[in-house]
Amino acid sequence: xxxxxxxxxxxxxxxxxxxxxxxxxxxxxxxxxxxxxxxxxxxxxxxxxxxxxxxxxxxxxxxxxxxxxxxxxxxxxxxxxxxxxxxxxxxxxxxxxxxxxxxxxxxxxxxxxxxxxxxxxxxxxxxxxxxxxxxxxxxxxxxxxxxxxxxxxxxxxxxxxxxxxxxxxxxxxxxxxxxxxxxxxxxxxxxxxxxxxxxxxxxxxxxxxxxxxxxxxxxxxxxxxxxxxxxxxxxxxxxxxxxxxxxxxxxxxxxxxxxxxxxxxxxxxxxxxxxxxxxxxxxxxxxxxxxxxxxxxxxxxxxxxxxxxxxxxxxxxxxxxxxxxxxxxxxxxxxxxxxxxxxxxxxxxxxxxxxxxxxxxxxxxxxxxxxxxxxxxxxxxxxxxxxxxxxx
Length: 392
Prior knowledge:
By secondary structure, the chain is an alpha/beta fold. It folds into three domains: 165 residues, Cytidine Deaminase, domain 2, CATH 3.40.140.20; 131 residues, AICAR transformylase, duplication domain (Cytidine Deaminase, domain 2, 3-Layer(aba) Sandwich), CATH 3.40.140; 43 residues, no CATH class. The protein is built from 14 helices and 15 strands. Strand 13, helix 13 and strand 14 form a beta-alpha-beta unit. Helix 1 packs antiparallel against helix 7, helix 3 packs parallel to helix 5 and helix 8 runs parallel beside helix 13.
């Protein structure tokens, strides 16, 4: 099959719609279940590239949670500690496979954004991963294969209509890619830049100590940025993206957006949030929404009389700004990647508030000296890659 007809394009009024191989060759994907749409395939193919590269670079199983052609989360398959298992709502599933850990991390970093995601997995989907996926609100999954038990679990989603795509992991696309805008064809070489340690070798700060774990996190940040709509910034810690700011016109707005997401990820681990007592009938998505309100500025939406009773068994105290700041001050050794240079030091100032210790960015700004000076003030280590990673 070299063509799949789709119901419509980005919107229901955009017909006809299809995906196809222009050279007449076979498509590298097979739809095993469901009827994926135009945006589903965009998320699937971008997500697959991301996890394939993460696996190649780190040697670990990888997963990503995509929404509207940008990742909400991306991670490799490192074990979960008790706290992460709890905030990702997987503490009842027992010990998970590495691939399932990768998806729990990818989904859990920003659960608000991941709601209704499209999933990409670097490895054959196993039962643990499928069991996790089955109970989340998701549009579909792409992977190089599925075990028999995983297929049974996934095909039970959405009354049997869950989108399941298998991709040929050996498929290599043409080196030149094309797309059309307003009837005009754009053509460029694919971004095949390898994200390796050589790329991270030019450390320009006084502090030049970047441990192995931080180098891995730098690679994860930059690979994630390769497939994130620009401008984009990515915070990473412990083998997973914890905050992604995508598609902002101003770089500092990317840094603030991603930083707020990273802060929320860490605030969810605070004793004050972990001790929240939800009513038994409240589902995971509603708990996510409640936590997001509770740790944000709109906390009275869930703490006002008549509102808290619908969410909590016991009314929790206000999580004050001072208490939140005290907890966030404990977040350390975070890595930050940027897809283009920082034009001002305000990005570093904001990153510092979210515990950033390591930075990877292209460099090349006329104010590089001020950015380096700001990093030195906080004893950060910053590598200039010399390479921009815009993605549109």
